[in-house]
Design goal:
Blueprint: H1 19-40, H2 47-56, H3 63-74, H4 82-100, E1 110-111, E2 114-115, H5 117-121, H6 123-142, H7 149-163, H8 168-177, H9 183-209, H10 213-237, H11 242-245, H12 258-262, H13 264-286, H14 294-305, H15 316-323
Antiparallel strand pairs: 1-2
Helix pairs in contact: 1-2, 2-6, 3-4, 3-9, 3-14, 4-6, 4-9, 7-9, 8-9, 9-10, 10-13, 13-15
Length: 335
């Protein structure tokens, strides 16, 4: 049984003048809460628990739980149970990464600058750790404090559908099949592998905030566009130095990515256009509210202003061309 959630001070993002300080505080509270939830879930001293902690804790950006919490904040929600909802999504994301890195999947040996979980603990323990994280995520979600039972039920159903054969599982399956694929087929795989967890983060924020369906649809469209942009960004980062990226690089050589299918310049243009669409849909969802979407908008913009290691992933001329069609709606990825 999950212990009662404390109200996390970092949720009051307006108490900081510096947006970077806001995000740092929220990220720290997420890390602390995940650590506490994993300790509650079992013996913190055994190897399996250690593997679960290695998969869920560390230097991750916490993009999905931060997005969930900031969108909820911009929708006017301040439930103390929201952090547990966000942590559940992050545990699912962590479990997916543990499995993605396995030799039978992407065969990656580095994750966030450290040996992957299967390298540290063995493949058998890594598989069990991923299952343990998934199980813990749903326990946390179904017991989140200060959230009505009917809302918790919707959250559980929404997250479980995201993992299944129409979500993460399907995306990984398609990615493993390899071979030559069209740009449209690659985009569909990217949507399932990357976009669905971003989509569920904002959709669950809308559910907790009890937003209407029109707002929820705009948020889903925002997450879809942002998910495509994040995947292209990561494809560009894959060609960099592993000491900078903190993960194995060169894994996409010969793989079906938009960069390989369209070329670097066209992939950059697609990235900028997805950013424009993300901003437009975010404004549709939140723009009419007083000072709304500012926390979410600043957070998303910060992820694309520069790439890892200070390398700009969206060159200035490319952004300018992509934004020319709709300058007012374009996310200011130029910084």
């Amino acid at each position: 049984m999950v212990t009662e959630t404390r109200r996390f001070s970092g949720f009051d993002v307006d108490r900081f003048n510096d947006p970077a300080a806001q995000l740092h505080s929220l990220r720290q509270e997420i890390d602390e809460r995940i650590e506490a939830l994993l300790e509650e879930g079992g013996d913190s001293a055994d190897t399996l628990a250690g593997a679960m902690r290695a998969g869920a804790l560390g230097s991750g950006k916490r993009m999905r739980p931060l997005l969930l919490m900031l969108v909820a904040r911009d929708l006017g929600c301040a439930s103390p149970g929201l952090i547990d909802v966000a942590c559940a999504v992050e545990m699912v994301h962590a479990a997916s990464l543990v499995l993605d890195d396995m030799p039978c999947m992407d065969n990656a040996r580095l994750r966030r600058g450290k040996p992957a979980v299967h390298v540290q603990f063995g493949e058998d323990v890594a598989i069990l750790a991923a299952i343990g994280l998934l199980s813990r995520a749903f326990c946390v979600l179904s017991s989140a404090a200060d959230i009505p039972p009917a809302v918790r039920s919707r959250l559980v159903c929404t997250l479980s559908q995201t993992i299944g054969t129409q979500g993460l599982v399907r995306g990984q399956f398609q990615d493993l099949r390899g071979g030559q694929r069209s740009a449209e087929e690659i985009a569909t795989t990217n949507e399932l592998k990357t976009g669905v967890l971003l989509g569920v983060a904002v959709e669950m924020a809308a559910i907790v905030a009890q937003a209407d369906e029109e707002v929820a649809q705009s948020l889903r469209a925002f997450a879809l566009a942002a998910g495509h942009a994040f995947q292209i960004r990561d494809d560009f980062a894959d060609s960099g130095d592993s000491a900078v990226t903190g993960k194995d690089t060169g894994k996409d050589v010969g793989k079906a990515t938009l960069i390989n299918a369209l070329g670097s310049d066209e992939a950059q243009r697609h990235l900028a256009l997805y950013l424009r669409d993300a901003e437009r849909h975010l404004a549709d969802a939140l723009g009419s509210r007083q000072s709304a979407s500012q926390h979410t908008r600043r957070f998303v913009a910060s992820l694309f202003q520069q790439g890892r290691g200070g390398i700009r992933l969206v060159p200035e001329p490319v952004v300018a061309r992509a934004c020319a069609d709709n300058a007012a709606a374009c996310l200011d990825a130029r910084g």
